[in-house]
Amino acid sequence: MDQEASPRSGHELVRPLVNSNNWSDGMERTEINSQIDLLRDKVLLMGGKAEESVNKAIRSLTERDSEMAESVRESDRLIDQMELEIDKLSIEILASQRPTEHDLRMVVSVAKITPILERIADHAASIAEAAIVLNNEPQVGNYIDFSLMADIASGMLREALNAFTAEDSLASREIIARDRQLDSCYGRVFDELLDLMIRNPSAANGAARLLFVAKHIERIGDYVKDICELNVYLTEAVFIKHSPSESFA
What we know:
The chain is an all-alpha fold. Helices cover 78% and strands 0% of the residues.
């Protein structure tokens, strides 16, 4: 009678240590994390360029540097190209991966943030265009308040981008509240320029252009608020835009 083979005799069946499906899921998760990181980096690069354009546009006015103003207009075209690249990457993430709820919020937020950054760059380009005209005319008044407004707006943008990176909704809410400071500064500039136009009609054209410059800066602050509201959505999964329950001290 043959002896029954021992289950340990001969070649043993070696069980895989890692489930192939789990391994595949892990690789896919690593890939999508890498793409999300790349998406975030591209947004920060675009945002940094937009911030640089705002600062240069105002400096081109206050320093009466038309060559710098021209460089802002060139940067605007580069920022437009960045927006297209980010859109393409966002579509690739949605089409080729299995994104989580948070991933989807990130892609949706980015899809809304990049057009905002493009508009901010457009406002900077408009300021630069005004600077080119104003630089060829006698200076109207002083530009101290314009530098102050630009410092507030560009600072808000920089901090909003940092909050986006850190997914810090508290910081985003604090930045939203700071827009009131920019609005107050805009109101003061508006009153001063209007008074100048009344007192000195010969300066009316220049003062009118400066009013548009001030309005461009004020609008940049409004756009930064929109970015911060999207940061809150990304982090907390709640929409606060137009929400009557939201108040900011």
